[in-house]
Amino acid sequence: MHSREKEPFVRIKRRDNIPLMQCIFIWAAAIALSLVVCALFIFAVTHSNPGAVYRSLVDGAIGTGRRTWNTVRDTSILLATALAITPAFKMRFWNIGAEGQILVGGIATAAVMRYWGGNVPTFVLFAAMVIVSILAGLIWGLIPAFFKAHWNTNETLFTLMMNYIAIQLTAFFSIVWEAKKGSGTIGTINQKTQAGWISTSFLPDVFGKFNYSINVIIVLAITIFMYIYLKYTKHGYEISVVGQSENTARYAGIHVKTVILRTMALSGAICGFTGFLLVSGSSHTISTSTAGGRGFTAITVSWLSKFNPFVMILISFFLVFMGNGSTQIASEFQLNESASEVITGIILFFILGSEFFINYKLVFRKGGKEETA
Fold first, then answer.
1. In a domain, 344, yes or no
2. pLDDT tens string 134-164
3. What is the three-class DSSP state of 230?
4. In the 8-state DSSP scheme, what is residue 338?
5. Domain limits for position 116
């Protein structure tokens, strides 16, 4: 007797397409759920009113003018990093080395600030800082790209290991340039003269006396450039084709090795320039924590935005907003720094988890018929 195999009660099916509004709804639901879980976590630890917790979160991110500008500053740096790795990721070259590329750009910037600051005209100083930071990041990005293009090495491990080399280089120069013997830090570079510092009082009547408007303007320009580059140029088209299939790209006459090298040169260059923005326009020093994990967070930004530079602005702001606000929560409710990382981790978990429901749907069997959820 023939018996038909029974259909499973539920199965996973990939979505062909999903409307933008439905994506937004899924993201909003994920964020709302993450905030509920974060509130439960804080209540379990501190027995505080969740409403007070979220007021503290908003206050920590944008409660004062200085906090608002700090959030905007951190958003611009995270956005710049995400923009840098996006061409490589769209090409399916997994550049996990943004941290190292930022650090070598920062080292190059710090070197010029230390040795040339106050000795050359301001224009020459800034031109040199920009050029060496871009070159440092570009070279750091080209090294794994060269090995990938010629010997098909694993770019994920290669770029990740180069992060550790960059960290050790930073530690080395921190000792060579240390402000006080045995301190292991170089302190604030050119603190008295502020030579090589990007101004934080640009158009004070418009932006206020203390702002990071120059950083923001530069990063917005990079955002527009990256959108045009990826969507409307021949290079952007080649990146997309190589990302879909290297064999198809070769059949279409695209020189894959050249695309890999060129794309990673661009990715590393923007990362190196981001190091310049951090050292010259923000921290005015260099240390092993200068990149601050942004190279890894930027992967989340780039992936969630589906490589759309303008969507990256919103995601970068949200993640920085929640991160800065979480730090305030930890401080106000007498928690250690790990608590803010737990809160940020919960939020990221839900946001990343929402991608499952954007890309897939659950198909239930009911009465011999399929129902989709």
1. no
2. 999 999 999 999 999 999 999 999 999 999 9
3. helix
4. H
5. 75-305
